[in-house]
Amino acid sequence: MIEGFSVILALTKGISKLNDIGQRIKQIRKSNDLTQIEFSKLIGISQGTPSEIEKGKSKPAVETLQQLSKIFQTDLNWLVMDDFEKNSFSNLQVEMLVKVRELDSGIQNEILEFIEFKLTRLINKTTR
């Protein structure tokens, strides 16, 4: 798994404005500082394929899309249809999610418990 890239983080870099699957794939590659050769080896495609996809001359295979989603933690709906705008997040929410993803699952669970505690307090406060 490549660290530091997710669709949500990508929103802060303006990816949601990319209107073509090839452009979105190129942004994933560039965001992870990969050459087309490194990228192709990582996802298991021939070396010339990323160039063809990024230029819009060919479309990626379903298997390629699945690999991209898995390796780069990318939402397939966004990747295929640019269907991420429905889930708009504030900059703070994006930052929180990115930072939480860097933590191990035990700490993530502690954070979830804390949020649930805060929400319970908030609900109890507003029902008084």
TrEMBL record:
<keyword id="KW-0238">DNA-binding</keyword>
<dbReference type="InterPro" id="IPR010982">
    <property type="entry name" value="Lambda_DNA-bd_dom_sf"/>
</dbReference>
<dbReference type="InterPro" id="IPR001387">
    <property type="entry name" value="Cro/C1-type_HTH"/>
</dbReference>
<dbReference type="Pfam" id="PF01381">
    <property type="entry name" value="HTH_3"/>
</dbReference>
<feature type="domain" description="HTH cro/C1-type">
    <location>
        <begin position="25"/>
        <end position="79"/>
    </location>
</feature>
<protein>
    <submittedName>
        <fullName>Helix-turn-helix domain-containing protein</fullName>
    </submittedName>
</protein>
